[in-house]
Write a sequence for this structure.
């Protein structure tokens, strides 16, 4: 069984059947068609018209204008119908005027109608769909109490915007009527207030006239009275009361009533102030862009309305005769410069809070400007005098001008050699250093930079090359400095510096010669044993004495302190002993590190506790036991093999960290008994016995309760406990 495949589109087959087969174009026809397309694109030939009479854009690509093969309607003529939305496929939506009826009520029937609901009598539903209360006898049998027919709302098809329109279904007429009524009531209230104001003014005028008549009667002067017209008021007052307050004449007057109070340019203007007269140019003046109609003249920027260049440039016109020279032109002749300076001063004064105007108060502005410049010049002169008084140099300000010095001749005799050095006569002044002059730091008698040696600055008084060093009063010889510098690179034997390989081999040889049992700890212990404890205590007392004297001296006023100076005798200085170094290290640790007082030494516990009071040597055991009980460590010491005579080891190596932590924890527990305390902790073991535990997470309390309750919740606290155990 064979199967036939058709590769030709059905529309082409249908055309072949009808004999409507497109002919093949020749080269000449194809060329003419391309030329016609180019002419249409250039606008020389009329555009192609489709079957509906609409012009086809010649710039549309060919693949868009060609009709696809699957289109069934006749498209022998040019068309874009296949690119447009078909009416049968487009969706139509309801307009804004179509909406659901609100409050619609139908007429109630007076008799039962066939096909109506047997329960309520409505025609829009049956008995099974009735939402009325089920009656014992329906409206069909009673013939009364019929319910009205439900109004079936239309099915409105809204677009995407129509479904989300918040004003959809509003009654425009009702809204307009509401606004009109509101404005009408407002206008009536304004007219009543204005009429009341006119009445008050008329009454005030009558009272004023009556008072004048009474005064004239007392002074016995003749008074000329005008008889009142019928109606009680004269024509002027009557016209005021009869005119409407919201007439067109009043509106025209109100339009120009703000002209007099309008601010001038440069004056502070409130943004909320009404200005009905626009600050525009006079219509009789020629616009700046019309002064020179040449296209190559000055450029006019319409956005900023500015023409910066001279529009009459290159026209051979006298600049003094033209009316405009550009926005960048500033007149310097006459008082123009002084006026501009005064205007700038007025603006700056306005920013500082001084209310002043160039045109309104010219005399006040001139006086303020003069007073300001006098005070400014006086201030500059005072500052200059203070600088001269402190640093000197007044002779340079009063010196002869340079041009006179260069051209003048003097009788001063100076001889120079061929290298420019002075042989005979005044010597050149020594060049000062780049550092601050006449400032003596750290008790030096010379400034920093007064001494120079080996490409380094220093102090001339002691030849010190360190900027922050204190003056010793002893001048170090240059030979000693060179010797110390050379010792950094030379050995004692004067050999060359050793290489890294040689230094490493020497280090290995020293390690081989040392016994294996030696270590850093043994070396430290041997040094501690050699030290005299009595000398350490004496040195510690001496350090405390000096610190106390320094604190007392700091509390005394500067003007009442005694004069102190460093000793210049070098024989009084000696290198501190090992005991003094150890005492200084202990005191330094206690001063800087708050935990240093808990670091025990390689002596008994009793001696370590006695170090807390360096003023006494032999402290009774009873007092030490009382101190241990206060610190909550008495029971722990009694549990040790030798009690208070137990050796702690160097830096407390015989005591574990857990023992120290338990002692501190028990001391804290005893301290917070019978009182409320708040503990913030990350180590959960320290708060397990708390009465209330609050768990914070991301700034909020997520859980609260005792340790057992939070564990039972299996929440955030439980996860933290599990994590801590896992970490341990």
């Amino acid at each position: 069984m064979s199967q036939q495949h058709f590769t030709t589109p059905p529309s082409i087959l249908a055309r072949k059947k009808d004999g409507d087969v497109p002919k093949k174009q020749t080269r000449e026809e194809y060329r003419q068609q391309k030329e016609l397309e180019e002419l249409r694109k250039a606008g020389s030939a009329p555009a192609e018209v489709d079957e509906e009479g609409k012009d086809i854009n010649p710039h549309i690509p060919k693949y868009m204008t060609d009709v696809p093969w699957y289109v069934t309607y006749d498209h022998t003529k040019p068309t874009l119908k296949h690119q447009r939305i078909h009416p049968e496929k487009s969706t139509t939506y309801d307009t804004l005027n179509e909406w659901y009826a609100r409050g619609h009520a139908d007429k109630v029937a007076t008799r039962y109608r066939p096909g109506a609901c047997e329960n309520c009598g409505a025609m829009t539903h049956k008995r099974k769909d009735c939402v009325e209360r089920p009656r014992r006898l329906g409206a069909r049998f009673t013939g009364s109490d019929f319910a009205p027919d439900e109004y079936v709302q239309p099915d409105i098809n809204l677009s995407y915007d129509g479904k989300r329109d918040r004003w959809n279904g509003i009654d425009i007429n009702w809204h307009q009527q509401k606004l009109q009524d509101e404005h009408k009531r407002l206008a009536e209230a304004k007219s009543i207030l204005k009429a009341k104001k006119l009445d008050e003014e008329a009454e005030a005028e009558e009272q004023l006239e009556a008072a004048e008549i009474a005064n004239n009667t007392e002074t016995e002067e003749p008074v000329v009275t005008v008889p009142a017209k019928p109606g009680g008021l004269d024509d002027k007052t009557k016209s005021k009361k009869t005119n409407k307050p919201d007439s067109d004449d009043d509106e025209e007057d109100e339009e120009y009533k703000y002209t007099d109070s309008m601010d001038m340019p440069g004056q502070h203007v409130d943004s909320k102030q009404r200005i009905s007269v626009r600050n525009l140019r006079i219509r009789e003046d020629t616009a700046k862009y019309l002064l020179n109609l040449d296209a190559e003249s000055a450029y006019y920027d319409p956005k900023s309305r500015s023409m910066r260049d001279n529009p009459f440039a290159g026209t051979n016109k006298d600049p003094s005769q033209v009316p405009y020279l550009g926005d960048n032109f500033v007149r310097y002749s006459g008082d123009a410069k002084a006026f501009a300076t005064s205007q700038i001063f007025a603006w700056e004064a306005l920013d500082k809070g001084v209310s002043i105007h160039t045109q309104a108060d010219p005399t006040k502005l001139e006086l303020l400007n003069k007073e300001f410049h006098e005070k400014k010049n006086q201030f500059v002169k005072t500052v200059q005098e203070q600088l001269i008084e402190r640093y000197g140099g007044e002779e340079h300000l009063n010196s002869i001008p340079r041009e006179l010095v260069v051209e003048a001749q003097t009788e001063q005799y100076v001889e120079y050699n061929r290298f420019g050095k002075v042989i005979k006569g005044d010597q050149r002044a020594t060049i000062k250093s780049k550092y601050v002059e006449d400032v003596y730091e750290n008790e030096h008698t010379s400034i920093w930079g007064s001494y120079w040696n080996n490409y380094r600055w220093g102090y001339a008084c002691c030849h010190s090359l360190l900027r922050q060093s204190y003056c010793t009063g002893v001048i170090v010889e240059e030979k000693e400095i060179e010797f110390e510098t050379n010792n950094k690179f030379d050995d004692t034997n004067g050999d060359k510096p050793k290489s890294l390989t040689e230094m490493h081999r020497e280090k290995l040889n020293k390690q081989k010669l040392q016994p294996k049992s030696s270590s850093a700890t043994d070396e430290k212990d041997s040094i501690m044993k050699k030290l005299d404890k009595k000398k350490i205590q004496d040195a510690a007392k001496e350090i405390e004495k000096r610190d106390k004297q320094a604190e007392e001296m700091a509390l005394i006023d500067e003007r009442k302190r005694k004069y102190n100076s460093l000793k210049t005798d070098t024989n009084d200085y000696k290198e501190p002993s090992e005991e003094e170094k150890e005492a200084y290290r202990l005191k330094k640790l206690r001063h800087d590190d708050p935990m240093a007082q808990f670091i025990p030494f390689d002596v008994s516990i009793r001696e370590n506790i006695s170090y807390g009071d360096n003023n006494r040597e032999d402290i009774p055991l009873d007092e030490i036991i009382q101190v241990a009980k206060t610190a909550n460590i008495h029971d722990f010491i009694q549990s040790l093999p030798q009690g208070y005579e137990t050796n702690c080891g160097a830096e407390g190596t015989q005591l574990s960290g857990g023992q120290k932590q338990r002692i501190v924890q028990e001391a804290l527990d005893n301290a917070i008994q019978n009182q409320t305390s708040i503990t913030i902790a990350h180590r959960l073991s320290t708060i397990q016995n708390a009465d209330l535990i609050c768990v914070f997470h991301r700034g909020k309390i997520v859980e609260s309760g005792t340790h057992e309750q939070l564990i039972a919740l299996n929440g955030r606290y439980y996860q933290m406990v599990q994590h801590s155990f896992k970490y341990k």
About this structure: The radius of gyration is 56 Å. Residues 116 and 500 are 118 Å apart (CA to CA). The mean pLDDT is 75.
